[in-house]
Here is the input.
Amino acid sequence: MTDPYLWLEDVTAEQSLNWAREHNARTLDEYTEDAEFSALESRIRDILDTDDRIPYVVIRGEYLYNFWRDGRHKRGIWRRTLLEQYRTESPEWDVLLDVDELAEREGENWVWAGATVLRPARSRALLSFSRGGADASVVREFDLESREFVAGDYAFNLPEAKTTISWIDEDTVYVGTDFGEGSMTNSGYPRIAKRWRRGTPLAEAITVFEGEPTDVSVSASYDDTPGYTRHFISRSLDFYNSERYQLLSDGSLQRIETPTDAAASVYRNWLTIRPRTDWEVDGTIHPAGSLLVANYPGFLAGSREITPLFTPDGNTALEEGRWTQNHLLLVQLSDVQTKLSVLTPNDTGWEEKPLDGIPDLTASSIISTDHRNGDNFFINSSGFTTPATLLYGTVGGPLEPVKQAPSFFDADGMLVSQFFAVSEDGTEIPYFVVRRDDAAGPYPTILYGYGGFENSMVPGYSGVVGSAWLERGGAYVVANIRGGGEYGPSWHTQAIREGRHKAFEDFAAVARDLVTRGITTVKQLGIQGGSNGGLLMGVMLTRYPELFGAVVCQVPLLDMKRYHLLLAGASWMAEYGDPDDPEDWKFISEYSPYQNSTKEADYPPILITTSTRDDRVHPGHARKMTALLEEQGHEVWYYENIEGGHGGAADNAQAAFKAAVTFGFLWKQLTR
Here is the structure.
């Protein structure tokens, strides 16, 4: 079948941009031209810009680094301070770079994309900037002493590309970038890793590894842990399978023989392994989602003596693990509630102790450690109605609250509940509901979902959701459907490829359960999701339209026949399948929203949003689906930010505007 809207995939063609501007104008005329919108946008902007937010930091030796945006710094400032200062109420910050000043001086729409600081000297940094928030970025070397960019042939500077770059020493880096024709994978990421010496042309950089065009990406890295320095190569075969090698001094490679689908890392002489499928070793089966440890030199030599550090059960999964200098911090999920512990190796094995001092009824994550310089760490804890608390500690000592986020909405009388819906195959699907307990339902309700790539949707505070929705009397729901990581890798793998329908069935089951419990009604139930969650929204629209009153579909995948041909899409075939394979297309074609939309159906109103500068999920998905729905006579609204990247917004002003449009659309549709 010929695609009549293929022309909308030409991202920056004047015809495509004019189409986007015309559709933007219609949506903005409907949802932004009143005092209520202005007040909501202003309030959201105040939340995003306030100086009272927690300035989250990365520990690098004696310095704590932070990137900060507020009302005075639209594009942001990169700064650092010392721990002693950070623990005060008003730290003194050393501003290293003002991105607003840089953008104005150079006439570029720079958006901060990150920094890699040279260790241990911390005299130089590699800074990345994108134009308008895209994934592709330029890299520029920065002198932390002079506070100037390093110029000329002497510097490690790279033009715009999807680049990976990391320090080896002050005069050498590993780099993967667009070296010219054939140097990128089909997914648009580096295929070749090189060692680049200061003062030499990039063209003369030495190739240390070369992958295949069908790989997702290739990278090289250097572990600078004192006494354990090593060089590594990682070859991503697909999104979930990788080969790992140690690069030896003679240039040869030694394969680290862990399962390709396992997450594996080396710290000192410990090799940690987290298999995504059951792994049998010498007659012992280690279940998917376990955390295993082995002696790294012994493993390379052929030993398979493995110690389980964490074993999942039907209710518990490992969310993350992070090393300090002498300990391993673990975050576990038990029915999507977090629990933290500390593992310590000793002469008799490994000792596990709970990490006490975490606030009740919150979800926690490890913000930063620096395993080269001690056992200190930062942990962030928040809940749906509990603003974030940042805690600082050292293993063996007490946790100390050092920063507290303000309350942005009135949570008095609000209730947080966890329920379980039953999906079509009998699986119980957990979900959280936040609503006012002092007002009778049913409520105008937003049901949020993602369900992909093993991403867990855990409780967390959002001042924007609270002020824009909960305070107005709405309910907010987060569904922990399969495809995520809430119960470990198997919760995810059940819903990939031919099992994708399970994620959709789970979300529909939650929607029905909300209505059955009287929390909401079909007409009052709106749904929201972005990226992979945008695909979820598209399927809900075309497969389950009778369950919802409105849909918000953000930076979505929707044309699953062509997703692998657009931008980074080829890297996700392990998640969705290959549309060019007839066997895969059989199950993909059953749900692909663009191919399953019909004029005969009665769809709820939908708002589709995207960004011109999104170079991860192609904006053509959103554009084409909007055009098709219009042609079929459905009520569809569209907004495309001309910049903003995959997040949809390049700064706080754009984020506030987009959020106000979204909440305004949902409130109007669900309360009429």
